[in-house]
Amino acid sequence: MVADNPTKLCEHCGGPGVRPGRRCCSNPCRYAARQRDPAKRFWQRVEKTDGCWLWRGARSTWGYGKFSFRGESLHAHRVAWELTNGPVPAGLDVCHHCDVRLCVRPDHLFLGTRADNLRDMDQKGRRSTGERHGAAQRGKVAHGSGHHHHKLTEAQVRLIRTESAAGVSRVVLAERFHIAATTITKIVRRLAWKHVE
Question: Could you report the per-residue pLDDT of 3-23, keeping only the tens digit for each?
Fold first, then answer.
């Protein structure tokens, strides 16, 4: 390869000619370097601070670091554990003491079952329940005719249930109330408008 930058050396073969923004002189060297030393490749993407060691590589949609290791894409904190302590036993997860998703500092990680992780989340108040999510939020959302997208009133829902019990077809009821027949089914089975008796 023609030397684009004779002062920068290839990480794999040591030869000159690495282009700006690259670490290797060619694609074969880049792939070989990735296979040769995954630990070096991993720790190069970590910002070590006095507290957490933060992953600066790719991220998952859930905010965890991602790293290609042994032919699969894994969470970066799991890879940090495996590089430091060896394989994770079957049925266990790698959990964070610090609750920082991008943290890969080995002494901030611990092994536990899914139940251990959920219990740890509960003790720290970090599970998505309570005031921020779940049942508490349902009480804050308007239901029935109080909801801004409502198409029926509570009286109409009672009428639909009464007429359906009397044998009126759900298709007929759907046409009369200008809603889908599946919605009629949900109302009759009390899967929708549950708050109406």
Answer: 445 567 887 787 887 888 787
Whether the pTM exceeds 0.85: the reply is no
How many other β-carbons are positioned within 10 Å of the β-carbon of residue 23?
16
User: Are 188 and 173 in contact, with CB atoms under 8 Å apart?
Assistant: no
Q: Is 89 helix (H, G, I), strand (E, B) or coil?
A: coil
Counted residue by residue, the chain has a size of 197
Domain boundaries for CATH 3.90.75.20 within the chain: 38-124
Q: Which residues contact 47 (CB under 8 A, 6 or more apart)?
A: 53, 54, 56
Does the pLDDT value for residue 136 go beyond 80?
A: no
Whether the per-residue pLDDT at 38 is higher than 50: the answer is yes
Beta strands in the chain (DSSP E): 46-48, 53-55, 66-69, 72-75, 93-96, 109-112
Q: State which fold the 38-124 domain adopts.
A: Homing Intron 3 (I-Ppo) Encoded Endonuclease; Chain A (3.90.75)
Report the percent of the chain where pLDDT is more than 70.
Answer: 80
